[in-house]
Protein: COP9 signalosome complex subunit 4
Organism: Dermatophagoides pteronyssinus
Amino acid sequence: MTNPNTILKQQIQSCTQGNPKDFIENFCKVLDQIFNENGIDLLDNVKCFVDEIVHESFPLVNSRTVLKTLFDKIIMLSDDQILTLLRYILDKLNSRALSFEDQVVFIRQTLSQIYERKKNYSEAAEILEPIPLVNGQKEYPTDFKIEIYLRIAKLYLANGDKEKAEGFINRASMLQSDVKNEQLKIQYKLCYANCMDYKGKYLDAAQRYIEVSNKFFISEEERYEILNNAILCTMLAGAGKHRSRLLAILFKDERCQHLPSFKFLEKMYLEKIIKKNDLELFATMIKPHQQANRSDDTTVLERAIIEHNLLSVSKLYKSITFKELGTLLEVDIVKVEKIASQMIFEDRMYGQIDQISNTIVFEQTNSLITFDKQIETICFQVNDVVDSIQQKYPGWIEKSIEMS
C-alpha cells in the first residue's frame, strides 16, 4: 500500500512541472485538498507540505506567498492544532529566519496569543522576545516596537515576573518620545503604572493611575477600573504627606464616589480610625499581587492600616501609652511601637517616644506646614487642568505664551 505522504509529495512535485504562471495556484489547490479532507492525517500532511515549500530549492518569493495562504487556513483550526503546526513551521524556518522575517514574526505573535489564552503567560512572553526589533533585516516602525515591548511586559506582569516586565517597559520608554499615537502613549503609561503597582511602589503607581484616568482616549469602564486601582494603591501606600495629598485628590474627584472602594477612601481622607472588621472587608477588594507579606510578619494592607491609624490617633491625642494604643488599634504593643518609631524617624509622623513611661507624645504640625500642604495640592490640581486642556487643544499653551 502506498504511503499517503508519498502520494502527497508526488502531487507537490507535479505542481512544479507545469506552467510557471500556474505555480502558486497549483500549490494552493493541493493545500485546499489537504484541508478539505481534514482527516486524522491533517497535521502530518501539512507538515509534509511545509517541508517542501520551505526547502532551499523552492523559490523564496513563492514560499512566502504559499505560506501566507497556509497561515490563513491554519488559524481556522483549534488552538492545539495551531500550536503544533506553527511550532513545527517555526522550527523549520529558524535556519532561514532572515529570509522569512515577516512570516516568523506572524508565527510568534499568533503563538503568543494562544499561550495567553491558555494562561501560559511566561511562554507567551518568551515566544515574542526573539523578534528582531533592533538588529533585524527589516526596519520596524517605532509604534510596532513599543507595542511588542509593552505586550511582553504585560505578559510578564501577568506571570508575576515584575523584574523582566520592568526591563521591557524601560526599552519602551527609550522610544516613547517618538510616539504620535495617543492610545499607545496611554498604554505605555498604564503599563508603567501596573509595573509600579506589582513592585509595591504604590505612591508612584497611584500617581500614574490618576494621570491616565484623566486622558480622553479611554472608555468609561476602563477609566473607573483605573481610578479604583489608584484608590487601592493610595490606601496601600505608606502614610505621609504624599499619600495624604493623593487621598485628597481622589476624595474630591466626583468619579470616585461611585466606586465600591470609596467608603474606605472617605474614612482615610477624614482620618478616621480603621477597625479590624473594616480591614477584613477591604482585604477582599485588593488584588492577589497586593497581598504580599512583609518581613515584619504583616501584610502590606495591615501595615498601611496601622500607619494610617497612627496618624489618625496623632490628631486626636497629645500623648498615649503604647498599651492604650495597642488596645485602641487592636495591634500588638511591640509591633505598634516599632512602626511608630519608624514613621517618626522618616518624618512621616511628628512625635517623640518616652521609653521610660512607654508613651508616645505627638507634636502637632504648625499652620505654616498645613498651608504649604494646601498650596502643594492646589498646584498639583492646576497642573492636571493644564494637562487636560493641552490634550483637548494641543496648540493652546503655545498661543497663550505668544500672547503674553
Summary: Strands lie at 319-321, 351-354, 359-362. The chain is about 65% helix and 5% strand.
